[in-house]
């Protein structure tokens, strides 16, 4: 009988020992600080809705409505997941993989087909998580393949972070970005040397506030006037962009493309769960996968009804845990409340977007480095044989180079089918697909253990 307590893999992962474990509860002030810190690296809910809105021709007001809806859904889904779902210290938010698929579907088939495809994709993911089918598929996703995926996520996000750093090339802005990274190192070293744990574990937040709010504000590089103009309360409305039987249309091509994106998101989340368990000091169990994917699917099915995008587990928060050694579920539950506040009160959410993009990018770059380090730890797991080396070499180099190379051939890329564009444009999808297929094919051809 399967209880969900069986381990995903027989071998133990190389794990970190956090200062605060999953069931630990830090003092209230520290909990609030660490929770706020988690929300400050989650900028995707402010960016991804704009991409989708632009793809389907929505107005700025409609895009703002999507942002608020995403934040509300993030808060609720994160709390449910940390409390009753897989009970890991994970933050859920709009998925770049799903969003890319939805934006493509929306541009080709229109917004009504896009929303319906997202709704169907959410139901598909819910069924995958709740059915237990992933138990029989886990042999196709060993630890080192998850390491390929997590490492690809870290490097892919780092490219985004690098773009943010150079979004404003004024010398003052680049200087503040560099100082933010330096202060993270200094706060961590000083905090550990002087045994001021809260300083070391809050280094990301303190650096953002010091250089992104206080200094940037004093130098006139942050527009605090936008904070005064933002409304205090903004409640999400159901069916604001339609619903099943209320204007949505079912297009097979849109559903297929978006479901492919959901498959990629599921595999990405499985890798994120592995990394989160590794940095939280707990064994990786099947219940983490089943419950986590089920919650993500339910949230992703509900989201389109309110104008929100599908959700996934964020790798950047795994990087925060690895950096701060704070893996408490209570911290993430409080972070969920802050995210909900962002969504219900645009005035509080505006504070995040006021921080200049280069400074956020610099701090985010450190987080991406920690994600990549977690991927390297997973990559070191398992037998070091021909299958491991060939799968890693081909999957990793393809995932890190093909999207950049394809982006340079825009006319050729545009002429491809939506599914082909999704595959070639997303390094994570490439890593997942090649990692799983090559591992399965080579294991079958070379046997369970083929030493180099």
Defining traits:
single chain, mainly alpha, about 0% strand, globular, 2 strands, about 450 residues
Summarize the structure.
This protein has 452 residues and is mainly α. It has helices spanning 28-40, 44-56, 60-83, 96-109, 111-131, 134-137, 143-165, 171-193, 197-201, 203-218, 225-229, 252-280, 286-302, 315-324, 329-344, 346-354, 357-379, 386-407, 410-414, 418-425, 427-446, and strands at 92-94, 311-313.
Task: Walk me through the structure.
By secondary structure, this protein is mostly helical. The chain is built from 21 helices and two strands. Strands 1-2 form a two-stranded antiparallel sheet. The chain is globular, with a radius of gyration of 21 Å.
Low-confidence residue ranges: none
The chain-level structural class is mainly alpha
- What is the count of DSSP helices, taking H or I runs of 4+ residues? 21
- According to DSSP, the number of beta strands is 2
Strand order of the largest sheet: 1-2
Q: Helix coverage percent of residues?
A: over 70%
The percent range for strand residues is: under 5%
Described by strand count, sense and barrel closure, the largest sheet is: 2 strands, antiparallel
From the alpha-carbon coordinates, what is the Rg to the nearest angstrom? 21 Å
Q: What is the total domain count?
A: 2
> Taking all residues together, what is the mean pLDDT?
82
Helix and strand element order: HHHEHHHHHHHHHHEHHHHHHHH
The gross shape turns out to be globular
What is the distance, rounded to the nearest whole angstrom, between the alpha carbons of the first and last residues? 38 Å
